[in-house]
Specification:
By secondary structure, the protein is mainly alpha-helical. It has one domain (71-266). Helices cover 54% and strands 0% of the residues. The protein has helices at 71-95, 100-110, 116-124, 128-144, 148-172, 188-204, 213-231, 237-258. Helix 6 (188-204) runs antiparallel to helix 7 and helix 6 (188-204) packs parallel to helix 8 (237-258). 30% of the residues are buried.
Length: 270
């Protein structure tokens, strides 16, 4: 009759047969063993392979190797597309291209139409005093709430508007719709409105339960500015489109560099 197998002894028991480790199996997966799945070497130093140097994510799984985030690729593609449109429009203005004919016919057909007072009110939304005042209030709120980096970025973005617009106006020297004066491309009022209201939207969004309200309001105010400028004959439609492109480029760079975004608890990003 076969004897019942003895239970495995513990480390404190004595006996002629102690459990032995099988080489090549159990030892291969112990911490610090050479060739194991652990990211550490037997001497305690990290390995030289990229896999062992990976940072873990919130759940402990291996993360991506820095620096390979995906947002810069999207940012570069968006900025490149906007700059390409701006380059085509600028080339058309400089070379008196085929787009200028339809643009001028459309601009002249729209100039003087619509309620004059409302159009003037819309056009004034792009004045630096109006749009800059709105941005100043948003900057002050964000600054005192601790979001100083985004606030400083918004100020720099607004300061970049004349630095971008004035050289293009001087270079293209385009005549206005109802005047002999030149220097109307691109629309400085449109660019000012886009950057000021857009930057204010980025600063105020973290404090709202519905952050999508601020970009919608910013786009609506900029669109109203554009409509007023065209209806009053202050700018050609292509001038306004170029202003949208410039403003969007500035806002994309601001959003990527200043770290603005939605945070919980009403606390602004630092």
């Amino acid at each position: 009759m076969r004897e019942t197998p003895r239970p495995q002894e513990t480390a404190g028991d004595t006996g002629p047969e102690l459990p032995r480790h099988r080489p090549g199996r159990a030892l291969a997966h112990t911490t610090g063993a050479s060739g194991s799945g652990s990211p550490h070497r037997s001497d305690g130093r990290p390995p030289h392979t990229p896999r062992g140097a990976r940072h873990t994510g919130p759940t402990g799984h291996p993360g991506t190797l820095p620096p390979v985030p995906r947002w810069p690729v999207l940012l570069v593609s968006q900025v490149s597309a906007l700059l390409a449109v701006l380059a085509v429009l600028t080339w058309q203005v400089l070379a008196d291209g085929p787009l200028l004919g339809p643009d001028e016919r459309l601009g002249l057909s729209l100039a003087g139409h619509g309620p004059a007072r409302l159009a003037d009110l819309f056009a004034d939304l792009g004045n630096p005093q109006v749009a800059g005042g709105v941005l100043a209030c948003a900057v002050a709120l964000a600054w005192f709430r601790g979001a100083r980096r985004p606030a400083a970025g918004a100020v720099l973005a607004m300061a970049a508007v004349p630095a971008l617009v004035v050289p293009l106006k001087w270079w293209t020297d385009r005549q206005g719709p109802l005047t002999e004066a030149t220097g109307y491309y691109p629309s400085g009022h449109t660019t000012t409105a886009a950057v000021a209201y857009g930057a204010a939207a980025l600063l105020l969004a973290p404090y709202l339960e519905r952050p999508w309200v601020t970009p919608v309001a910013a786009a609506s105010l900029t669109a109203a500015t554009s409509v007023g400028l065209v209806l009053r004959g202050y700018h050609w439609p292509l001038d306004v489109v170029a202003g949208w492109c410039l403003g969007a480029v500035v806002l994309l760079v601001l959003r990527a560099g200043a770290g603005t975004g939605r945070v919980r608890g009403g606390q602004p990003p630092k």
